[in-house]
Structures are given as C-alpha cells and as structure tokens.
Batch of 2 targets.
Target 1
Amino acid sequence: MTQSQIAKFGLGQIVRHRQESFRGVVVDVDAAYAGPVNEPGPDDRDQPFYRILAMGEGAGFLIYAAEAVLEHDPDMALSSDEQAQWFSLDGHGHIAPRAQPIH
C-alpha cells in the first residue's frame, strides 16, 4: 500500500546530494516517485522525490532525486534576486516554480 509522507524539503530550499557531491535548489516536490513507469526506478518509491536544479560548472541541470539521498545545505541560500528569478510568491506566502501558476 502506498502511503504519502510529508516532504522534508520545500521549494527554494538548498540541498546537497549525499553521494553525488552536488548542490541545488528544490524546484518541485512529489509525495512519492512520479518518474517514468517504463524505466527502472528506485527500489524505495514510497518517499518524497524532488526535482532539483543542480548547480554545476558554468550551468545548471535538472535532477530527480529521492529524499533519502538529500540533505539540507546550511552553507548556501538563494538571494532575493535568485528567488524572484526561479519562483513566484502569492499574497498568502505560497511559493511555486515560475513555470507553474499558483492555484
């Protein structure tokens, strides 16, 4: 039986991948694995998964990662300009990726 969990990380939070040694910003959250069903996926799909805009040399790239392999990165934070570039904020304080409207 699939059981939803509360996500540990929120939109705009900086995280670090435990094994791959990259940092990135959370741009989307799924309550459980929502990747391609016809491709091999992780064994433990019953946990939150995150789309991370990872910061690499000279550019960023998107990665889809399980909560178990991520940790909070207290050494980095988004500036106000970076937050405005990547996210929108409504009058109630709800944050969403720029590409998605807030409902």
Note: The chain has a mean pLDDT of 80.
Target 2
Amino acid sequence: MKLSTRLWRMAVPVLLTAAALAAPVAHAETIVMASTTSTEQSGLFSHLLPAFKEASGIDIKVVAQGTGQALDTARRGDADVLFVHDQVAEEKFVAEGFATKRYPVMYNDFVLIGPDKDPAGIKGDDIVQALGKLAKENADFVSRGDKSGTNAAELRFWKAAGVEDKGKGYKACGCGMGPALNIASSTGAYVLSDRGTWLNFKNPGSLQILVEGDKRLFNQYGVMVVNPAKFSHVKAKEAQQFVDWVTSKAGQDTIASYKVNGQQLFFPNAEK
C-alpha cells in the first residue's frame, strides 16, 4: 500500500506535465494596424505597443506605409485600425463610411531640414518663404512622393507658396521618411520631415533643422477603427480597445513619456 501510494505520488507530476503539453496553447489576439512610417521609424511604436499589450493582452502587427497607402490598405479591408496623420484624408475616409469616427490622439510638427551651410539661404520660421527660395535657387530637394501625410503637407506648402515649377533640383523618391532622410544626407539636399523621425534619425551627416516654428507646420495624428459594416472580418472590438486605450490617460501618458536624447517626440492631445 505504501509503495503504491509512493508510486502514485511520483506519477502525478508526470501526468500533469503531459496533460499541460497536450492542452491547446492560448495565443494572444492579434490585430493589424495600418500606419504611417513616421510612427514606426521614430521608434514610438516600439515604446507604445508593448505597453498596450501588457494592458490588454492584444498583439498589434504594424503595416508601416505612407498615410495615403495606409488608408488604401484599410479601404481594401486589410487592416483593423488606422493610425495616420492627414486630417483631410482621414475625414474623407470617415465620410466614405470606412470608419465611423476619427479620434485625435497626438501631435508634433514638421521641420524643413537641409545642409548646415544652407546654400539657398532659407533658415528661419516661414515655410512658404523657404520653399519659394528653394524653387528660385533650383536647390536639391528630396520629396517623399508617396502620398504620405508628410508628402501631402509638403504639397500644401508648395501650393501656399504659389510654386508650380519646383526647380531642377526637385526629386521625388517614392519612399518612406527614413530613406528620404538618408538620400538628403548623402546628397546634401533639403527635405521636409516630421520632427519625431528626424530626432530618431541616426545618419544626419551635415543636415540640420533650418525652418521650424511656423504654425502651418503643425502635424496632427488620428486613429480610426475600420468599419466592420464594410468588412465583416475586421476585429472591431479589439481595434476599439486600442483606440480607447491610446486616447485614455494611460495611453496618453505613454506617448508623452517617449523621448530621444531627452526630447519628447509626440504630444498627446486626445479629446476627453
């Protein structure tokens, strides 16, 4: 009897281990976020998304594109949530019924960057005046040319400057913010960037901020849940959990706490 009891006690842990191995493993829910390259390349998501997973248990797979491409990805039903920065395009997205609401979440600003010697003499706080000088001087300028929020802002600024012929030095790379900055760094060109990506950029070379502080350079970000009425497979419940969290005090504090070299990159401004 004693031997049998002893054998039973020895067998229980083995049986429990076998049962645990045979049991199905619970996987965290995963949603897809279509977002702009600036949120990814600035390093924000590496800071923000682990905090959301800890709070919710939900994983987020990020598809980082220009804002225009991100919106198109969602229009095809290939994303559950959007995190982008072109308010006009975002409001159109809602009006078309692809989302039911747009939520402001944070802001930073655009900056015009160029070589420290500033051959076109644009340094100052007037983006319109600066672009006018760049066109007049046929200065080398790298445009993202990718329908991103940054590209849309750049085109608005050229239009405000009354510039149609941007000069012989104007080149569109059709690329993300990081690659555009690398091209500008290697060629000594001017480029418009969001401040967050610039501050996290590791290859500045001779580049520096030359134009900042113009109120027209304000850069607002918004989040939206893709409308499940358009695409029944959209994980709207989990996507809404992210929106609710990122616009809550916890999410907003997490955004505010992200810094590079002591500088805050994004400033929360969700409407509560």
Note: The domain at 30-107+220-268 is CATH 3.40.190.10 (D-Maltodextrin-Binding Protein; domain 2).
